[in-house]
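User: Could you check the structure of this?
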Amino acid sequence: MLLTSCNSDDDSPASSNTSKKVVFKAVTSSDANVGMVVYGYDTSLTTASSLSGTTWNSSEIVVPANAYVANIVMNGVGASTSSTLKVQIYVDGILKKEATSTGKALSATAQYNLQ
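Assistant: Sure, the predicted structure tokens are below.
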């Protein structure tokens, strides 16, 4: 005798079927400043230039369930070779990706797969 069974449940994770809330952040050492940032998801990107200060946060972005990747690229200027710039990607309030740049010419890039 042969028995078979069919299951109509989708095996994909539930989180891939819902939108996500994404926030991008950046922080520099006290001797550095943020300068310009490009951030967003897939091809939906935002550019902000002429920034200043040691911290920057995006507003919360609701990313659709079918989005593939979240990206941030930020440039800044440090006063010394030990100056730092750190960029972060938060998804639903949880830190998912982080990258750091060190030096006088700062450029940090982080990318997180949303699927």
